Amino acid sequence: MCGIAGWVGGNSDAPPEAITRRMLDAIAHRGPDGEGEWRDPAANLWFGHRRLAIVDLTPTGHQPMHSASGRFVLTYNGEIYNHPALRRTLTEQGVSFRGTSDSETLLALIDRVGVAEALPQLNGMFGFAVWDRERRELWLVRDRLGIKPLVYATAPGQMAFASELSALQPLPWLDNRLDPAAVADYFRYLCVPAPATILHGARKLPPGGLLRWRDGNAEVSRWWQVDEALRTAREQSPINDMDRALEELRPLLADAVHGQLLSDVPLGTFLSGGIDSSLVAAQMRQAAETRSFTVGFPGTANDESDAAAATARHLDIAHHTYPLAPEDAAAQVPGLAAIHDEPFADASTLPTALLCRAARGQVTVALAGDGGDELFGGYPRYFHGARVEGLRRRLGPGGSRLAAAALRTIPRPVGNALGGLLPGGGGSDGATARLRRLALYLGHDRADTYRQAIAAWPCPPLANLDWAEADTGAIDLDRYSDLPWAEAMMAVDQAAHLPDDILTKSDRASMAVGLEVRVPLLDHRLVEFSWRLAPRLKWGDSGIVGKRILRTLLTEFLPPSLIDRPKMGFGAPLADWLRGRLRPWAEDVLTDGAIRRDGVLDPTAVTAAWQQFQATGEGFQRIWTTLQWLQWREVWHARA
Asked: Is there a shared CATH topology between the 2-224 domain and the 237-568 domain?
């Protein structure tokens, strides 16, 4: 895992060293083990690289790296898990290697078949750039699921790229005006969906993206996307039987996990005690001894450390719990915005950052369970949506709207009292919240319901009404109108929520401390397999519990007492802290003067949201998006 940057084109003889130095320094945290640069004066091209050494710790793994023929030059971030198999094939074809890195394997494959032709053969996570010296072409590539980041900016006749947006900030020609649609979508969805960035002049290469730059022109295409997994699934027979599904899943999952144990440095796993991380840990333990890590918040409802420790004991894994006192964890909150190169408001960044920092003291690589919810139906909106879709059909449009209106009038005490009558009880967030979600699901069309269900601010609190109505168009449920509602939501989550929120959080929190996080559940073969499963194998006939197939597989490793627990998510008690020990800090950030100086937010809307949150505890995400926006703006201006 590493950080990369580059610049090509322009009118000067070469990109200025004073600027490329700042670009490389901006991503130094991603590669604490070394750096490299390479220039091609004839093309006005510069490549930069910061190295986190994982495979081949010797100088033969140094980058930027040249192919054996000298034609291709690579600056690369990521890991290719099937590189040993690729290397064996290339060796049989007469290729010789100097070192043992996957970077060298990738270059040899590209040297032999070309960039676009090499990509379908790769199994891994990556964002990389390749310069073809013969054709004078620059290629940018991002992995299928968008596990690793890659952003770029263009101007007439030139382009720059980097692992993080902050590395593009020094560019003298960067259009750094805020993108109104990106700002509005940030307040809706807690992050900026690709391909937009928060700036007018920069873009994210989308997951599975391929950019070809030649003669001053950039062309972006997709070499893989979620639609590809859907198409592959439809070409094969659907799986309706649990025994058959498990028979296919076992070797796929084992191969994905075991393949990601490739490392020349210490390796461990994150273990929250939930389904996904427990399954990854169990598969790891089948292959080798390992160690696991979790953070705990003693005395709070968010503390899963006891469950994680019990799981580790049963699996015979050396486990490390890092209990965090409220004052210690809360002290980290004001610095969270500095981890991210864009505004980002997924509150689980806090425990993720704390966990990464703790684990980095013992390991350089950690496996995580990200992706299980999106692939195998773990979020309540999926199985609730599947049940409500049938109810909407029975009620009809008019009946659905009337039922929604009636549900919205139920007072909170009455709603909570109804918890015992609801399937699965009141849930982790209370019966009234579930009844309000049901009202939302009944009262709007599919696409609007989904957007509102995941939005912090359905109507962003922006001073400019034109900005508030803007939309990047990235959250597009109608793209999957041929799918049932629940599966359409899963497809959009895999295409947008997963890379732009979940994986962004893991990447920034881990790379801030020089830790590589791997996500074996997002092996593309598992993604394609998941789309062949009948819905009942994901959330069951009852429609109230997700990830049925993963739960079933986990019974082969753990007793029911360690599996059948309510879904909690990975979070810290931030809402309580913002009404307690963190309230003075939040009020210092949310002053009327600061909001007006920022010039983006509507002070009246922010004040009303803060007062409601303090009075009722409702609307935490609205407050958190606002706090992180103002903090990010401060950090970004300080970096300029």
From this structure: no
